[in-house]
UniProtKB/TrEMBL annotation:
Name of the protein in its database record: Integrase core domain containing protein
Region (Disordered): 70-134
Basic and acidic residues bias spans: 123-134
Amino acid sequence: MRTELSVLKNRIDGLENLVQDRFQATGSADTEEFRTQLAEMRTQIANLAVKPAQVPTPVMPESLMQMLSQAPSTQTLDDLWREPPTSKSGKRKHITGELDEETPTAPAKEARRQEKRARRASKREAIEKEALDQ
């Protein structure tokens, strides 16, 4: 409010200088009416500066008031973010160090994996042999 009043005072001073320059340029010496209006404006601004400004009280919902009145909490980002989500297929994300542990697998699954690896290895060897023969 105070800065706005000082800005108004500065504008009035600038306006006074501008009007006086214009009156001098036109050769008119009757500036009395302008001076009385200017004095009236200055008294109005002075009255505004003396009066305390009435600021309306902000309207806030009760929930917001409760949140603002609570003491601030310090929470780490890890606590805030929690665990990473699991994918929809049910596969969970691996945690470091978990891959080092041996997980028990069914013997039938392990046998199929071994056969699959052997087939891949033989295919690679066949492709490499063909490439060397050409």
